[in-house]
Design goal:
The chain is of the alpha+beta class and about 240 residues long. About 45% of the residues lie in helices and about 25% in strands. The chain starts with a strand and ends in an 8-residue tail after the last helix. InterPro entries: cNMP-bd_dom, cNMP-bd_dom_sf, Env_Response_Regulators, HTH_CRP, RmlC-like_jellyroll, WH-like_DNA-bd_sf, WH_DNA-bd_sf.
Length: about 240
């Protein structure tokens, strides 16, 4: 992860809505304790064993926030993209947050990291900063609850279909450059389960598979896996 010098103020002013409610001293304080960092796809940013990382503001790229079970199975909770902020990376700033998360770069990413002590001070001094942090954290927990609901109550074919559609929209392409292992990590499942369901989708004419890619060839059928048209599924 490398650091670069650039005009931090412009980005903080652009992406933090509470900026207009900061006085000059608070603005200088926020700028002085924020720094640009860059990371490559696959870089690991945070784990429960590390110190509290800080507030992450993504300028370009995408971060994946996930939890890991004892058997190393991963469950993706949510992603943070361009112009979005991750507050759970600074869980030590909010005492009520007690669970551990991990963060990695899904793409080459540029972000601004603001250290925890700075934000804690600003939260104590300025109610607009405090409200913003709690609002963002509440939205993150809403994403977490949605992810848990999908895992507990949705059949795997629906989850996989939804994931493929979301990735197609996100990448603006019907050809997804990913592996069965990566999909399994994102969905908190086993690679064998993903492979079996993808082969079923291929047999149904929904996708075509090749090494390192999944191509959606019938979006209507894929959507029907989520919204309707009952069909038999492999056990």
């Amino acid at each position: 992860m490398a650091e670069q010098s650039f005009n931090i103020k412009n980005y903080l002013e652009k992406y933090y809505p509470f900026w207009t409610h900061l006085d000059q001293r608070e603005r200088e304080q926020l700028c002085s304790c924020s720094q640009l960092q860059t990371c490559r796809k696959g870089d690991f940013l945070y784990s429960n064993d590390d110190d509290c990382l800080g507030i992450l503001l993504v300028l370009k790229g995408q971060l994946r926030v996930f939890i890991q079970s004892g058997d190393t199975r991963e469950i993706t909770l949510f992603r943070v993209g361009d112009g979005q902020v991750c507050t759970l990376s600074a869980s030590c700033i909010i005492q009520e947050i007690t669970f551990d998360i991990q963060i990695e770069a899904d793409e080459d990413t540029e972000l601004i990291v603001t250290n925890v002590s700075c934000f804690r001070t600003l939260m104590q001094q300025n109610v607009y900063v405090e409200n913003y942090i709690y609002k963002e954290t509440t939205e993150h927990f809403s994403d977490v609850m949605w992810a848990m609901n999908q895992i507990l109550f949705s059949s795997f074919d629906k989850r996989l279909a939804g994931y493929l559609l979301d990735e197609s929209i996100r990448t603006h392409s019907d050809t997804l450059h990913t592996t069965h292992e990566q999909i399994a990590r994102n969905l908190g499942s086993a690679r064998e389960v993903v492979s079996r369901m993808l082969k079923y989708f291929e047999k149904e004419g929904i996708v075509s598979l090749s090494r390192g890619t999944v191509k959606i060839i019938d979006e209507k059928k894929l959507k029907s896996c989520i919204y309707g048209e009952k069909r038999s599924r492999p056990l």
